[in-house]
Structures are given as structure tokens and as C-alpha cells.
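Re: the 287-residue chain
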Amino acid sequence: MSAAPQSFTAACVQMRSSRGVAENIATACSLVSEAADKGAGLVMTPEMTSLLASGSDDLFGKVRGETDDEALAAFRMLAKEKAIWLLAGSLPIRLSGEKVANRSFLISPEGEVAARYDKIHMFDVDLEGGESYRESKNYEAGREAIIAKLPWGRIGLTICYDVRFPHLYRTLAQAGADFLTVPAAFTRQTGEAHWHTLLKARAIETGCFVFAPAQGGKHECGRETYGHSLIVAPWGEVIAEASHDEPGVILAEIDTSRIAAARAKVPSLRHDRGFGLPEIESTRRVS
């Protein structure tokens, strides 16, 4: 059996998705094609590529089941046409009359869905300035961590708010992931504070390449996202970054030998040890 190739070009697509599904599909396909034409073998789009809705009515009026989703169909055709691996960072997929999946799709160069991942951690937060989100109102949380095979290694799929839960990434790395995806629609407020730090930490902790295609700018629905799509190397270096929040493409040459090199320097994935949980005392006796 021949050895896996040691290098390839990866691309992250940065978008400013609107409430118009057809418009978003056209924009995404144009940017994915641009990346493929520049030599990318793996191209990734952000969270909510096909629709950034303004509310429940807008969302449920436009989402479809997986077999009827026009964005997925378009991306499958494009992946086959360009002979690339394509990650549709996430698409809203109807599960029932009341719930939607925030689902990531890894599509092969043959146009087949190679893996699906439903976002596990729901973004239910209240930020300063009255900015509030309740993702769990409309979306059903996923229950399974997912790894898929690429020609260059194994890829672990995650989405946006998942990045704040490091045990998920450690589990993926210990299960064999070499690359981690974090397609996102980070708010400007949280992105300015934590985006770079969290992504670099996930790369350092796991010795993986981290790919984070992002939404950026002021959206039609009123939401403002941070942008700054990133590709981070296993030692924590940012090797590609989108300028601010404008739509576009970033590319980086991925040398997979850097994964083993980083893990050899600090082999923390092999150093986990069991430990007892601390006891929580309601009162502390002082002598």
C-alpha cells in the first residue's frame, strides 16, 4: 500500500451569508471554485453557508430535508466537477416541523457525502449590550463525534461553539484525527476576545492542523460576525488568515510531517492519567 502524500493545499472560504439561499449558494460556489482553481485539494466553507436567518419563521420557511436541500446538491456537483474534497461547513437541515440540524458535510471528489456531523454544543448565551442567542430553540444538538478519512490523514469535524469544549478535540485527536475543522459564525464581540486564542489552543493541545472558515461582517439578518478565517499549524502558528471580515479565500500549504514533529516535542496526547474528582463541601471547617 502506498504511503499517504505528505503535503496538500487547503483553503478556507470566508462569507457574509444572507437570508437568500440561492444567493448564498452562488457566492459559495464562486469562492470554492476560486480556491480549487488555485490548487486547493481541500476547500472548506463556514457555518451556516447557505442561510443566516433572522428568526424561526424565516428559518423554517426555507430549510429543507437533506434529500431536498439545494445547497448540498450544488456542493456535491461542484466537488465532483472540481475533483476536490469539499467541506460544507454547515447547512441548516430540517429534521421535523420543530427542529433543525446544524450539519456539516464532507463531500468527496466523486460528489459523495463521506461524513456528516451535527453540532453538539448549542450556543445559548447572553452577551453584553443585549446580544442574546438561543440556538437550542430551533436546533437539535448532535450526539456523536465524527472522524473521516482523507488522502492525507484523518479529519475531525466540529462547528463553531464546539471550540470552547476542549475535551471534544482531545477525544478526536486521540482517536486519530490529524486535522480539525471549526467552521464558524462567531459574533464580533466574542471573536475579538477569544477567536485566535481558542483556535491556537486547540491546535497546540492536539498537535493537529486546525481549519476555521468563518462568517464575517454585518449580515442582512442584523447579526455581526467576526471573520478572520484561520489555518493554524500543530505548533500553534497561524499560517493563513483572512483580512478582517470581507468575503474571500485563504490558502495554505499543509505539510503533514509537522503533525508528528509537534507531537514528538510535547507528547501530551500519550500522557493522560486518571484522577479522582474533587469533593465539594457545602461548608469548610476552620480549626
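The first helix runs from residue 21 to 37.
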